Amino acid sequence: MTFSNTPRPETLKSLADVKLTPFWLDDPNKPEPVSALTEKITAELVVVGAGFTGLWTALQAKQADPSRDVVLLEAGETAIGASGRNGGFVASSLTHSFQNGMNRWPKEMPKLVKLGHQNLDGIESAIQQFNIDCDFIRSGEINVATEEYQIDGLREEAEESAAVGERIQFLDSAELRKRVNSPTYLAGIYDPSVAMVNPARLAWGLRQACLQLGVRLFESTQVTALEERRESIILKTQYGQVESKKVALATNAFPPLLKRLSFYMVPVYDYVLMTEPLTKTQRESIGWHGREGLSDNGNQFHYYRTSEDGRILWGGYDAIYYRNNGVAPHLENRPASFGLLADHFFQTFPQLTGLRFTHAWGGVIDTCSRYTAFWGKAYGGKVAYAMGYTGLGVGASRFGAQVMLDLLDAQARKTERTELQMVQSKPFPFPPEPFRSPIINFTRWSLDQADQHAGKRNLWLKTLDALGLGFDS
Questions:
Q1: Domains detected in the chain
Q2: For residues 205-233, b (16+ Cβ closer than 10 Å) or e, as one string?
């Protein structure tokens, strides 16, 4: 089945009463913000950004050395960015998929798979240790084929991934529709290693854990500049400053404090809908009692999952780049994308016609050309960064934080993580404007054309493939 690019008028009724706010953040249990930094202080480690990467960095730094003085700075509120706006898929994959990892680091894949599973176990362990109420459930994820040409690729992935330690299961149409009933499903693969979570509550739980361990958190505190001293870095903020021996940058899709990083990362907006809770009859019409996460197999793909209170989150497909690396609150509302998502939802689940959406929102993804996080150091090793998760950071951010801490402590020790080619290499940079916008938009058009024509890739996409590049939501 090919998804339409023009929503039907009747589906727009489902959006009539929608709230333009992220469902996860619309929570009465949201913590009260803490105060901003208004003085000059010192620290041993400063972490910039209180999303998942920053929270895991601060938490693990204190766990490794409880005496270490750690300061966490957040420009807005904890989880206000991508960490509170995503689908809540916690994947064990560190490479954004088995195939992407095999294409780039085939010799390292057994090790990357092992480290990815250890990382997911570590997330679950922290949730248990700090008693974080975040609806964490190891339900797995199903990637579905909605076109005949996609089936062989899924079957091959299930077979090839077993050689590096994965346990992916191929599902034919009948097996798949026993789990989740959609007339569009032709086959699928089930990956049991993926968990689902309420991402905002996970972030807030990590925030509380950081505070318990003595991390000093300042919200509404935007870092405006970095200044190097002989043995330290000074971080300037609106009303104060911090002088620190080490700095970990975890700003991801937001404008980087190291200007050169803007060549490696493109901020791309992703849009999401959340339905009202399904009735018992509606739930019986689709099955889906296992709460697996789902995604379809197109270049422009949807991801979807159920919530603790019986709703369906439905997002993806569009990946919108705004000229000059645009990032701004007004870009989170895009009616055209919301209408398209609603139409695709009812194409997938026509038996749910009449269901309404309660929340619609957008969030910005830190996209890089290899789809996985990358790392590096600056200012003589006093500063480290991690970014580029390309939409798969809920799980991989903990690993990304570990690598940053490894890099900051590199003089003391090397680790299995820092020896990885994945960690030591960088993605191919994107061109600057005015070339960036037309190249990205032509690539998106090409991917859509491939989806519309049984996966046949044009010369431009074949060239990107040959260079190990691409662009994906």
A1: 31-140+193-265+368-430 (3.50.50.60), 144-190 (no CATH), 436-467 (no CATH)
A2: bbbebbeebebbbbbbbbbeebeeeeebb
